[in-house]
Amino acid sequence: MAPRVRAEIENGALIVSGQLGKTIQRLRKAYNLSLSELAEQSGVAKSIISQIERNETNPTLATIWRLSQALDVSIERVLAAGEDAPFIEKLSRADTPALVSDDGKVRLAIIGWIKTVEWLQWYDLTAEPGGALESDAHQRGSIECLSVLSGEAEIEVAGHVERVRAGETLRYRCDRPHVIRNAGPDPLRATMVCIMKAAVMA
Asked: Which SMART domains match (predicted)?
């Protein structure tokens, strides 16, 4: 690399260093990595990573490159990313995974982000009349939120039954067996969000 080009890149790194620390920290947390784990994977000392995240040092280009490799992201993205940088990801209907109930009448399109699946899951639920989705208990402390967009749902949790109509939302503990049924004559459409124990306990 020509000296002039290298100097320009290094100067650019200094300019973005104010955002660089936040970017590294955000990416590290997105991968659920501790400082020690990122240090081990990148070969950059834990103390240096900590200083970078607190914007107490201006890292060399080599250090930024090693961190970007460990975080599986291009160095250009690390240098360019900031709090105001847009994040846009689009999935087609065909690319959106879906689950189907045993009776074939209920479809759960998984519209949640795979990176949040351990603590937050959300779905687009559609059910034909008479369709039922039976679920085992999720981990203790989990909460499910069902917002009905059209139709009418019946939720059964531990023997308690509640009806939910279009425009209404029902929140309930899902750490016990529960059933969602289409209780009306028309197709049911709802958004379902499951907040797992880690988020509930936070």
From this structure: HTH_XRE
- In sequence order, the 6+-apart residues with CB closer than 8 A to the CB of 77 are 68
The three-state (H, E, C) secondary structure of 86-135, written as one string: CCCCCCCCCCCCEEECCCCCEEEEECCCHHHCCCEEEEEEEECCCCEEEE
In the prediction, which pLDDT does 4 show? 40
Token digits of residue 17 = 């260093």
Q: Is-contact 24 56, C-beta < 8 A?
A: no
**What would the pLDDT profile of 96-142 be if each residue is shown by its tens digit?**
888 888 888 999 888 887 667 777 888 999 999 999 999 988 888 89
Q: 3-state DSSP call for residue 150?
A: strand
Q: Give the neighbor-by-neighbor strand order of the sheet with 160-165.
A: 132-135, 178-182, 152-157, 160-165
Interval 1-45: pLDDT, tens: 444 434 333 444 443 445 778 888 888 888 788 889 999 988 999
Token pair for 193: 């969000």
